[in-house]
Design brief:
- With 251 residues, this protein is α+β, with helices and mostly antiparallel strands.
- The chain has a domain at 90-246: OmpA-like domain (60s Ribosomal Protein L30, Chain: A, 2-Layer Sandwich), CATH 3.30.1330.60.
- The chain contains 8 helices and 5 strands.
- It has helices at 5-13, 28-50, 55-68, 86-115, 136-139, 152-164, 188-207, 231-237, and strands at residues 122-125, 130-135, 167-174, 214-218, 239-246.
- The protein has a 5-stranded mixed sheet.
- Strand 1 and strand 2 form a beta hairpin.
């Protein structure tokens, strides 16, 4: 039925009809996005669960790739060889070396106690070897590199160790910070090196070990034990050290 003339005028002059209120909650596109992210997360978690993180296989694959590309490297212990027992052998060798060093230190301490030579020598050890320290005053006269015959008992013990045990030996000569005052050695470098060489020569003659197992080094006054502030401290710094080390490929 058509509206009357008055009613049509009222509709036109009144307010226009309002739109319905929007739906509450997140917009529809955000729900779709959340579903997609959740599915991706589940996918990558599933991939991770399928992955087998085997270190041995990884090392094997790494070695194969290096070989394929011609990568050259030096590995004495063979730690990168697939399915090799070298790492266990290396660990066993280290344990054996530590036991040998401990036994050597006990042997030298027993010699010091039995022979009452604590004033002539001392012994201690670190993770790399066993160190025997002898003051220069009991080995040499001042400014010389000629061994005193009275010290042969100590050197004979050091030579016996080299002959009976599988150790390498570094003989290290040390002086104080005072310059030399003789016509034979122009510097403490020459004096310390000559003293180390003199001790090493005697040990080689007594033990008969291979020359490849021994070294002689002169440090002059560069490695003092105590500050060179008194005659007593300088006497401590003037010394010869015998450093036993387990035999290895790095020698």
């Amino acid at each position: 039925m058509a509206p009357k003339k008055g009613e049509e005028i009222i509709y036109i002059m009144g307010k226009a009809p309002t739109e319905p209120p929007p739906d509450e909650g997140l917009p529809p596109w955000m729900a779709t996005f959340a579903d997609m992210v959740t599915l991706l997360l589940c996918f990558f978690v599933l991939l991770l669960s399928f992955a087998n993180q085997d270190i041995a296989n990884f090392e094997t694959m790494k070695g194969s790739i290096q070989k394929a590309f011609g990568v050259q490297f030096k590995d004495r212990a063979g730690r990168n060889v697939a399915y090799s027992d070298s790492k266990f052998s290396e660990s066993s060798a280290k344990k054996t070396a530590k036991k040998d060093m401990a036994a050597l230190e006990l042997d030298i301490r027993a010699f010091i106690d039995a022979g009452n030579v604590s004033k002539l020598m001392s012994v201690n050890s670190d993770q790399n070897g066993v160190l025997v320290r002898v003051p220069s005053r009991v080995l040499f006269k001042p400014g010389t590199a000629t061994l005193d015959p009275g010290i042969h008992k100590v050197l004979d013990k050091i030579a016996t160790i080299m002959k009976s045990k599988k150790f390498n030996l570094v003989v290290r000569g040390h002086t104080d910070d005072q310059p030399t005052h003789n016509n034979v050695y122009d510097s403490n470098w020459e004096l310390s090196a000559a003293r180390a060489a003199s001790c090493l020569r005697y040990i080689l003659q007594k033990s008969g070990v291979s020359h490849t197992r021994v070294k002689a080094v002169g440090y002059a006054g560069t490695k003092p034990l105590v500050p060179n502030t008194s005659n007593q401290n300088r006497g401590i710094n003037r010394r010869v050290e015998y450093y036993y080390q387990p035999q290895s490929d790095d020698w």
